Amino acid sequence: MTPDDLRRHGHRLVDWVADYLEGVGDYPVASRSAPGDVRAALPPHPPTSPEPFDAVLDDVASVVLPGITHWQSPDFFAYFPANASGPSILGELLSAGLGVQGMLWATSPACTELETHVLDWVVDLLGLPDRFRSDGPGGGVIEDSASSATLVAVLAARHRAGGAAAMGEMVGYASAEAHSSVRKAFTVAGFRDDQLRVVDVDEHQALRLDHLRTLVEEDVAAGRRPFFACATVGTTGTMAVDPVRAVAELVVPHGTWVHVDAAMAGAAGVVPELRWVNDGLELVDSWCFDPHKWLFTNFDCDCLYVADRSALVEALSIVPEYLRNAASDAGDVIDYRDWQVPLGRRFRALKLWFVIRHYGAEGLRHHIGRHVELAQGFAARVEVDPRFELVRPAELSLVCFRAAAGDDESERIMHAVNASGRALLSHTRVDERFVIRASIGQTTTEQRHVDALWELLGAAADGRPIEPRL
Ligand code: PLP
């Protein structure tokens, strides 16, 4: 493709994306594709001769779009959001255009230095402790996902506790509501299943400190080494918040690495009144959050911070001759390949930089604060409506509720809303009971969309007909 062709097709594609985002609220939110539909519409073999770009774009509309669930729809309330924005999309495009592989400082200094700098900005933006800044022993890095952040935290913790040779006696802790990526990280790192202790949760779905204390005491008495604890700020099921400070105070005296998974809720720190989400972070070893969930930055982008980067770098650094260079040898630079599992890395800082500059701290504060207000308004409606019960107070952007008439009715209502294509909700279980989750965090979700969701729920609960979105 010549630069002129790229310009021509690129303009068309950017127009296509802008049109798509302008009209995304008109599509049924969840894809109606059945398994195999998308593949059945594709030719069985790759083309032998070149195809015009227009033909490819046509197939995007006719083959791909029907198989898309519209995560950017203002009526998307399922899971946690993956909220993108214009500046992040353009940052992603620029990253692809530059085509940089930023494994080392030397392979593109701007890729490393912009990342370090933007991650220091994020410390200011979210009111994080100074120990996460890059000018001391700590610092931040962009990982592809919170799952990877947890994995590298586990690897750094294992290194600090004596490395793979000593891992037989190591034990780690996470609550029953922690994300499944904690268990996956232990599995990938080669731990036995019983080396991750599952801590019970209380009636708020938060880690029970008394149970953690009992487990740690048993382990220490048996000669085991509590090397890692994960506290979650904003659990996936119900956005519950573990007592980070108390967890750290309990386990740090045992030399335990404390990792905080704030994948979703961490972004709340842009709003000064919500900075209670940062409580205790000055005591922990690592913390992560996903701008690709709730900070208007398209997937993938997770920010991981460590208080002391040496354990991470020592755990993950291997220097083959072909990557040696003067700047790295002199120890003058950060080489982010040593902060992650893969060698290669994309220039992800660009999109985060674009987002922060486009919105400014004020804009981000406004949008995140607005989502929380919308969630709280919605929760207030649920609370006073006899057809529904609020399962947890909506402290942030997630409303967990159910039908007063029981689990079957909750399921029926949720499926009726989802089947209409007018909104998309998801669910979890709390104490074995079915809970509907309304997660409010899409970039373009406004009061009218939340009002429409409330109307839909009411119609579904009353058994009134709902006109589907086709
Ligand atoms: N941690 C929490 C609390 C989550 O809610 C999620 C996903 O929803 C994850 C981790 C995994 O996120 P990622 O897809 O970035 O690995």
Chart the SSEs and their pairings.
Layout lengths: L2 H21 L13 H4 L12 H12 L21 H13 L10 H18 L12 E5 L2 H15 L9 E6 L4 H9 L7 E4 L9 H13 L3 E8 L11 H8 L5 E5 L24 E4 L1 H4 L7 E5 L2 H8 L9 H4 L19 H36 L3 E3 L7 E6 L3 H13 L6 E5 L2 E7 L7 H16 L8
Helix pairs in contact: 4-13, 5-13, 6-7, 6-11, 8-9, 13-15, 14-15
Bound molecules: pyridoxal-5'-phosphate (PLP).
Pyridoxal-5'-phosphate binds next to α6.
Tell me about this structure.
The protein is of the alpha/beta class. It has a domain at 100-346: Aspartate Aminotransferase, domain 2 (3-Layer(aba) Sandwich). The protein has 15 helices and eleven strands. The radius of gyration is 24 Å and the shape is globular. The mean pLDDT is 97. The structure holds pyridoxal-5'-phosphate. Pyridoxal-5'-phosphate is lined by residues 80, 145-147, 179, 181, 232, 234-236, 261, 263-264, 290, 302. GO terms for molecular function: aromatic-L-amino-acid decarboxylase activity; pyridoxal phosphate binding; transaminase activity. It comes from Actinomarinicola tropica.
